[in-house]
Write a structure and sequence with these properties.
By secondary structure, the chain is α/β, with parallel strands linked by helices. The protein has two domains: about 325 residues, Methylmalonyl-CoA mutase (TIM Barrel), CATH 3.20.20; about 130 residues, 3-Layer(aba) Sandwich (Rossmann fold). Helices cover about 40% and strands about 10% of the residues. The strands form four sheets. It has an eight-stranded parallel barrel, surrounded by seven helices. The N terminus and C terminus are likely disordered.
């Protein structure tokens, strides 16, 4: 077998290519065919919020990709993230292999003591080895380590008691101890683990807070790499060499619904971290494990059943990207505490990926696919540029204290919000195909995640907000449901002008838009009388029909006293002069439009969650 120049294995020379039966097509021929219609190939490139621009075609002519991520043992562990240990016995019986327990924010930040009840002995015992428990303990890690070691230290379980002072600082907005003290505790628990359980992980480089705040893929990678670098530097200053820290490191990421970007993001992270390890003198040994969870940011309260599909794509991305532990979260996570059935379906999703799709049999399935390779390379380079910028400000901790990191992430989050509001990005059940009459599963409310009393903490920064992209749209639906509870759901009349068949694209578009705002759509022919109680009319027709008949139809509804008359189409002077109140079309900020409509028709309404904006961080105290 011919050796591959990047370290893997190619097919035998005497095995014909799968494409050998088809005539070869050069890139020049492909470009000529594409451009035959008058559209240059460059028009097919797609800029992304994540950083790189996606090209229509990636080939070897674009240059060889960088080094692949380090090889690893194929396969992954089926995981789940929980806020309490109750239910782990049920999950373990369904095939759970790793559980992530996040302690309350105040405990992780050092503002409250960790109680023995945080890790229930009975529930932990149900997670029998080789199943592992990963505890995100924050600066409480030394205390939690002793507790968990007392319960499971003599068992063959590869557990972890993890601390990432910087991720905790960013997500909670402060620390109850100074940053040097936080790293002293991380050093202490790492020393203790090295003495008692060398296989237990303690050092966490966690990019999930950046993801939840709306960061781009490049920024997420940069956050994890910058955190890992600072951990190695600060622990080295306390006497533990980087090569001795690396075996205790765990990386953590979240993945959304863009398969191409998410797979490349994980591959780029693993590639960059392998370079960090090499510079730390720790290139030997097994690769650093990567924990990946499906995105909280991308999940929805409305039509939560779609979250099952989001979880499947996220799980697939995590496996293809090289995760060692994959947590496909329950589809009702955004609603509250998931029920046992939701947890079971989350676990079963991975059983299907493993047992039926056989995804665990290949180390790096994306290797050799030029689209994945090119995007991996672009993300790695972009992320490293961000890391260098933050290092220029003194590192991740300094960047968080000054607000530089938060401002950069907020800029990408604002772009993400705008894309969803204008339809350039879509979320099924939120701004696309909303289901007004859905019956959501009933679940208990989740415990609050905010830490109280942070004003007196010695270290305070502007915390990274944890928000889901769908929240502003869910606010619209909540207001519509409140109106329905008081009598009837608001109705929007969709009036076709000209031949109805020709207006069908505009009718379907308007139907989706008004439903996004919680209005029940009602189609009417031109000239029909408006039913009582209908306060919104949308005139729908193709451009030529609107130009001929639209102004008259708009004037008719305005004269009849319809509170709001919209046109599904581009604005024209004739339609404006006829009295059209607004226009809805592709690229329009429908979130702003629908929010204004609800305020006009329902009375004063709560504003949608504002787009993130850069803001200065509070000045840290001297010992930060």
């Amino acid at each position: 077998m011919a050796p591959d120049p990047r370290g893997s294995v190619s097919t035998p020379d005497d095995v014909p290519s799968l494409l050998s039966e088809f005539p070869a097509v050069s890139e020049a021929q492909w470009r000529a065919t594409v451009e035959d219609g008058g559209t240059p190939v460059s028009r097919l490139a797609s800029p992304t919020i994540e950083g790189p621009t996606l090209q229509a075609l990636h080939t070897a002519e674009g240059g060889a990709p960088g080094l692949r991520p380090p090889p690893r043992a194929p396969g992954w562990r089926i995981a789940l993230e929980v806020s309490e240990t109750d239910g782990l016995e049920h999950d373990a019986s369904r095939g759970l292999e790793s559980a992530w327990l996040e302690l309350p924010p105040a405990v992780r930040a050092g503002g409250a003591a960790a109680s023995d009840e945080a890790i229930d002995a009975r529930s932990v015992a149900a997670l029998a080895p080789p199943a592992a428990l990963f505890v995100d303990a924050g600066v409480a890690a030394p205390v939690v380590f002793e507790r968990l070691h007392g319960l499971r230290g003599d068992q063959r379980s590869s557990d972890a008691v993890l601390c990432d002072p910087l991720a905790t600082l960013a997500s909670v907005g402060g620390l109850g101890v100074s940053l040097p003290d936080a790293y002293a505790r991380l050093h202490a628990v790492t020393e203790r683990a090295a003495e008692l359980r060398p296989d237990w992980r303690t050092v966490l480089a966690d990019a999930v807070p950046a993801h939840d705040a709306g960061a781009s893929a490049e920024q997420e990678i940069a956050f994890a790499i910058a955190a890992g670098l600072e951990h190695l530097q600060r622990l080295a200053a306390l006497g533990r060499a980087p090569a001795d820290v690396v075996p205790h490191v765990l990386l953590r990421m979240a993945v959304g619904g863009d398969l191409l970007v998410e797979v490349a993001k994980l591959r780029a992270l693993r590639r960059l971290w392998s370079r960090v390890r090499a510079h730390a003198g720790a290139s030997e040994g097994p690769p650093t494990p990567l924990w990946v969870r499906t995105s909280w940011r991308a999940s929805t309260r409305r039509d939560p059943w779609v979250n099952l599909l989001r979880g499947t794509v996220g799980g697939l991305s995590a496996v293809l990207g090289g995760a060692a532990h994959v947590a496909v979260q329950p589809f009702t996570e955004a609603l509250g505490v998931p029920a046992p059935d939701a947890r079971r379906w989350a676990i079963n999703t991975q059983h299907v990926l493993r047992g039926e799709a056989h995804l665990g049999l290949v180390d790096d399935p994306a290797a050799g696919a030029w689209a994945f390779e090119a995007l991996t390379d672009a993300l790695a380079r972009g992320a490293w540029g961000i890391v260098q910028g933050w290092l220029g400000h003194g590192g991740l901790a300094a960047g968080l204290r000054s607000g530089v990191v938060q401002a950069e992430i907020a800029e990408r989050a604002a772009a993400r919000s705008t894309a969803l509001a204008t339809g350039h990005a879509s979320s099924t059940g939120t701004n696309l195909f909303p289901h007004l009459d859905e019956v959501a599963p009933a679940v208990p409310a989740a415990p609050p995640r905010d830490a109280a009393g942070t004003e007196a903490w010695p270290v305070r920064v502007l915390g990274l907000p944890r928000r889901r992209s769908a929240e502003p749209f869910e606010t619209l639906r909540d207001r519509s449901d409140a109106e329905a509870a008081r009598g009837a759901r608001p109705v929007a009349a969709l009036v076709a002008v000209g031949p109805p068949a020709r207006a069908r694209p505009q009718l379907d578009f308007a139907r989706n838009v008004v439903a996004v705002g919680g209005f029940s759509p009602l189609e009417l022919p031109a000239g029909a009388e408006r039913p009582d109680g209908v306060g919104l009319v949308v005139v729908c027709a193709p451009a030529e029909a609107l130009a001929e008949h639209g102004p008259a139809e708009v004037r008719r509804h305005v004269a009849a006293g319809v509170p709001r008359v919209l046109v599904a189409g581009r604005p024209t002077d004739a339609l404006r002069d006829a009295g059209a109140h607004d226009f809805v079309h592709r690229g329009r900020d429908v979130l702003a439009l629908l929010t204004a409509l609800q305020a006009d028709l329902f009375g004063s309404a709560p504003a949608p969650a504002p787009a993130p904006a850069p803001a200065p961080a509070p000045a840290p105290k001297a010992d930060a």
